[in-house]
Design the sequence.
């Protein structure tokens, strides 16, 4: 399991998927931490390019964000 260095406050736990376990981080928590040094827009751009875009295989951490589920067809 890979952990993000410096984002312990945003760590939520571990997600298990079949025989794979990955670290789970709170999206807003990571953005909030990045905003200590940059604007929200810059933090989101940095996050998308450097963190989410930094795929390093099956152990790459996941990021939780709440989204509404629309079950109406």
Sequence:
């Amino acid at each position: 399991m890979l952990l993000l260095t410096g984002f312990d406050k945003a760590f939520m736990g571990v997600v298990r998927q079949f025989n794979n376990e990955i670290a789970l981080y709170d999206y807003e928590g990571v953005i909030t931490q990045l905003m200590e040094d940059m604007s929200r827009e810059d933090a989101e751009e940095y996050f998308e390019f450097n963190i989410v875009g930094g795929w390093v295989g099956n152990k790459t951490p996941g990021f939780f964000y709440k989204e509404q589920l629309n079950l109406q067809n």
Remarks:
- The helical segments are 27-34, 40-52.
